[in-house]
Structures are given as structure tokens and as C-alpha cells.
Specification:
two-stranded antiparallel sheet; Mitochondrial_ACSM; GMP Synthetase, Chain A, domain 3; 3-stranded mixed β-sheet; alpha+beta
């Protein structure tokens, strides 16, 4: 759970919405530090081949689809998300890397 300005954001709910974007092949929602909000929503996205989209495009699209406090304010593009041997996204690896920044 991400606590953004006192609002509780469930990553699975935001991820389900993000998968509807045509450029999103894979997505993992994590918390990022924010001096004002405490935490903010960050999307780590692997883009679909052949589809172009900028971070701003994805943020604008998400803002139109969900509540403002749930909208990712940061988007990071990666080639692929880290996965376990069973194919599950290793979100803790992404979260720990973000908090180490």
C-alpha cells in the first residue's frame, strides 16, 4: 500500500488500470519518496513493442481514467520487469531500488 498525502493507494488497483493503456506491456506500481506528500505513486513500465508513448502521455492518460491521488506522478521505462522463477513480478526489488535513491 502507498500512502500518498494520507490517501491509501493499492498498487494492484492502479496496475489493473495501467494495463489498459495501449503502450503498456507490463507494469509495476511502487512508492517513491515525495517531499510534499510523503510518498507518491510511481509506475515502472515495460512498453509494448512498436507503440510509442512518453511518460507525460501515460500520466495524462492515467489522470483521465482514475482519481488524482492514484495517478502515477512518475513513470520509469524499463526493458523488462524483474521476475521470479515462477514468473511473478519481483516488486520488492523495484521498491528497494527506488528507496535506495
Amino acid at each position: 500500500m502507498i500512502n500518498a498525502s494520507g490517501f491509501k493507494v493499492w498498487p494492484a488497483e492502479v496496475e489493473a488500470m495501467m494495463y489498459q493503456h495501449p503502450a503498456v506491456q507490463e507494469c509495476c506500481i511502487i512508492a517513491a519518496r515525495d517531499a510534499y506528500r510523503g510518498e507518491t505513486v510511481k509506475a515502472v513500465v515495460a512498453k509494448r513493442a512498436g507503440v510509442e508513448a512518453s511518460a507525460e502521455d501515460i500520466i495524462e492518460w492515467a489522470h483521465a481514467k482514475m482519481a488524482a491521488y492514484k495517478t502515477p506522478r512518475l513513470v520509469e521505462f524499463v526493458e523488462a520487469l524483474p521476475k521470479s522463477a515462477t514468473g511473478k513480478v519481483m516488486w520488492r526489488v523495484l521498491q528497494e531500488r527506488e528507496m535506495a535513491k
